[in-house]
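It is worth pausing here to work through a concrete case rather than discussing structure prediction in the abstract. The textbook approach is simple: state the sequence, then state the predicted structure, then interpret. We follow exactly that order.
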Amino acid sequence: MDLSADLLWYVAIGFGAQLVDGALGMAYGITASTLLLGAGVPPAVASATVHAAECFTTGASAASHHAFGNIDRVLFRRLLLPGVIGAAVGAYLLASLPGDLMKPWIAGYLLLMGVWIVVRAFRPYQPRNVASHLRPLGFFGALVDALGGGGWGPVVASNLLARGNDLRLTVGTVNAVEFFVTLTASAVFLLTLGVGHWQIIAALAIGGVLAAPVGAWLVKRVRPRPMLGVVGALVIALSTRTLLKHFNVL
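Step two, the predicted structure:
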């Protein structure tokens, strides 16, 4: 890959992914991971790269959502510790598994996540305060996020929204907890794999940091269903391409 020709593209990916993530509470990790897998980056390296970039983007996003009053402190506390534990376990498992063996499974997981996002785009919900099963949800969301390089938002935010939790507080809180989930996964990846691809990390991070305040502002104004449909369709298309390339169809 000619990084000098692609850096602006990665900045644009980081900006667009964080813009959607900041407004909907999902899609940064899945979008970036799927694109990296499609470019031939091994799953563990792709996940480590995305999580390293997200240390910057999720920090900026959490600060922005806090500034706009989009965080539910009770929900934040109940998701935080299970999320940190799940991220550590997932990152350790992925770093211990062979990349070629995991690639089709991770691409398949991302494909299912894309389908799930599209389904969620067409499901109405009745507003209510969700208070049950939050700790298992936080653990599982962080586990699959570390294993797949994305998934915290689609698993956690979509689950909360489908059960009727407030959109603004769900997105803001999930983004805030994601900073700690990402930081934990990145620390484990750094200890077990090291982290390369710094040019890609920097480009993704720059785009994401620039978009973070805009996404936090948009969460009060965006219509989520059309955006969910677009994100889900993109993830499905890119994951399908990765699977077809793996099985030598393309």
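Step three, interpretation. The chain has a mean pLDDT of 79. DSSP finds ten helices and no strands in the chain.
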